[in-house]
Amino acid sequence: MHLNVTPPEGQPVYEGEIASYWFEDGILVSLSKSIRRTVPLIAGNVAFVKELTGGKPVPLLIYLSKSPVPDKETRAFSTTQLPVIYSAMAMVSPPGLSRFIMNLLFRFQSPPIPMKSFPDVDEAKAWLQQFK
């Protein structure tokens, strides 16, 4: 399954190194890019997202794509940074991908923010409304 995702007409799109971003109804939407995440890339992305959101954690709807598995240091760093920029995360992905990522990142601890995976984008958006 390939996610064919396009931003709404007339909506500004912000190109980051690891994802493209736009806003829909108070939710930050992210279309992830297939690039290996590193600590410097994650740190740069956190600064980029803070700029987009005015430094306030926002709900994130992320369309996941397959990308190389990050190293342990990058996974640990990512976990500490999630609550800095996001209030909750809904993942939309092909079957199995989000479960793999959740297991990879949170095998030994629970996520630092509410996280849930969805096969359907409308369900994901409905769930995120409570975190706006």
SSE layout:
Layout: E1 14-15, E2 19-24, E3 27-32, H1 39-53, E4 58-63, H2 72-85, E5 86-92, H3 97-106, E6 115-118, H4 121-128
Parallel strand pairs: 3-4, 4-5, 5-6
Antiparallel strand pairs: 1-2, 2-3
Helix pairs in contact: 1-2
Which key features would you list for this structure?
DUF7793, DUF7793 domain-containing protein, 23% strand, alpha/beta, globular, 132 residues, Transcription Regulator spoIIAA
| Contiguous helical run count | 4
Radius of gyration: 14 Å
Spatial shape: globular
N-to-C terminal Cα separation, in Å? 29 Å
- The neighbouring-strand order within the major sheet is 1-2-3-4-5-6
Strand content: 15-25%
Give, in order, the helices and strands: EEEHEHEHEH
List unreliable stretches of 5+ residues.
none
CATH superfamily, please?
STAS domain
CATH architecture annotation name: 2-Layer Sandwich
Major sheet summary line: 6 strands, mixed
- The computed structural class is alpha/beta
Mean pLDDT, rounded to whole units?
89
Number of domains: 1
- Give the % helix: 25-40%
Number of strands: 6
CATH domain fold name:
Transcription Regulator spoIIAA
Pfam family, one: DUF7793
Protein name: DUF7793 domain-containing protein
Organism: Siphonobacter aquaeclarae
